[in-house]
Write a structure and sequence with these properties.
2 copies of one chain form a homodimer.
Chain A (H helix, E strand, L loop, with lengths): L6 H22 L2 H8 L3 H7 L3 H24 L5 H18 L3 H11 L1 H7 L2 H20 L8 H17 L1 H8 L3 H24 L8
The structure holds a DNA duplex (30 and 30 nucleotides).
DNA sequence: TTTGTATTTAACCAAACGGTTAAACCTATT
DNA sequence: AATAGGTTTAACCGTTTGGTTAAATACAAA
């Protein structure tokens, strides 16, 4: 008579925890605030989740799967390289526009405790997904479809252009002044322009200097 | 008989505080740890800096100037556009390679307290430096030197490609496995490749799809 | 040597924190 | 209506935290 009904309370707690952890980070978050946000008492919180760290783990593992593994799954899907890159940009930016605080939250918490992340995110799986992509890139190079490029370098360019704007948003807004509305429009237009920047670089780069 | 000699102690404190704040963030940092790191007692810490927040302010304002204002100063220097962009990439990455933890630290702390940042970093000045750059970009477009582009978009691309790799380093390392040595080499090669990516996009982009 | 001032310390404090306990409260089954 | 088990709460606990205090120490100027 428990398993079925308490979906409500447990999910209210998880939703509240997600909100508070994302806003304040693990160190800044307070169990009392999570309890308030969920409309319950602090002791009940510990009844459902034994400790702050355990609650955080549940919340974080879930978010990691939704935002990291989703990206790497597209990265290893069986689409043609160019189409795939366009998808990796457009779908990722689309998702991040709905959750602009996620990239900074995830990266901060991984940096706070890198050892745990490998276990939590099933790093072995992601690593193998990346190797699959890596193979596809080398294939594209061999066939002359794209220029010579290090797959890690390519991945970094895509992740950088997709995610930095959301990570640096508070910084950029407070320093050069940029309304939320303007930011939103900019991100929308970036879905196309970032894809073209990356693909253009792969298909027809002309050396602009040196060796 | 004070002003002259205590440079030693005060600077030892600042150095220790910098290290601890950067490693743990404001919320994770402990005054006791800063005191230990500086080789002094906690009370002496409060003798020199009345509160944790005040000490943090001194440390953070200084770092903000060194890493943000430096970048925006190059951005508004009186060099030709293309040469300037190359400099903005190469010098920024060069600096970040010596201080890889800085971008994530700065962005996290700005996000934690955006209101304060505007005052701290002299946002008005940076904003005017950016307007100067913005004017130069429009000039380059009018003269047909580069393609049509939103200056904010251009700035975001440069900042993204420069800084995200350092921000996402722990994430990427724990997820796809990437040694510090390999990372270092990658960043070194990016000084050239990122500049070419940006400049190539500005000088000869060919539309790869749609309208 | 004495005096005044800068420097350093150990001991202490109140508040906030994560976490526990034991009892009360529902509510469905018998 | 009695029972049993899931659910909720107020009160409490030990620790850690940022911060204070008052006294000791070093040392230059008188």
């Amino acid at each position: 008579m428990k398993e079925e009904r308490d979906i409500t309370t447990e999910q209210r707690i998880l939703k509240a925890a997600r909100k508070v952890f994302i806003e304040y980070g693990f160190n800044g978050a307070r169990m009392q605030l999570i309890a308030d946000e969920a409309g319950i008492n602090k002791a009940l919180l510990h009844y459902y989740f034994r400790s702050k760290e355990q609650l955080f783990d549940v919340v974080f593992t879930d978010l990691l799967a939704r935002f990291q593994i989703a990206f790497f799954t597209i990265l290893a899907s069986d689409k043609p390289l160019i189409e795939k890159i366009r998808l990796m940009v457009e779908e990722d930016i689309e998702l991040l526009m709905k959750h602009p605080e996620m990239p900074l939250f995830i990266i901060s918490e991984v940096a706070r405790n890198p050892e745990k992340t490998a276990r939590r995110a099933n790093a072995a799986k992601i690593s193998s997904l990346f190797k699959e992509f890596s193979r596809q890139v080398k294939e594209g190079i061999a066939e002359g479809e794209i220029r010579e490029v290090d797959p890690i370098d390519l991945l970094m360019n895509i992740l950088s252009l997709n995610r930095f704007p959301f990570i640096g948003k508070p910084m950029i807004q407070s320093v050069i002044g940029l309304s939320d509305d303007r930011f939103q429009k900019l991100m929308k237009s970036r879905k196309r322009s970032v894809a073209e920047l990356i693909i253009g670089d792969l298909k027809n780069r002309t050396t602009t200097g040196g060796k």
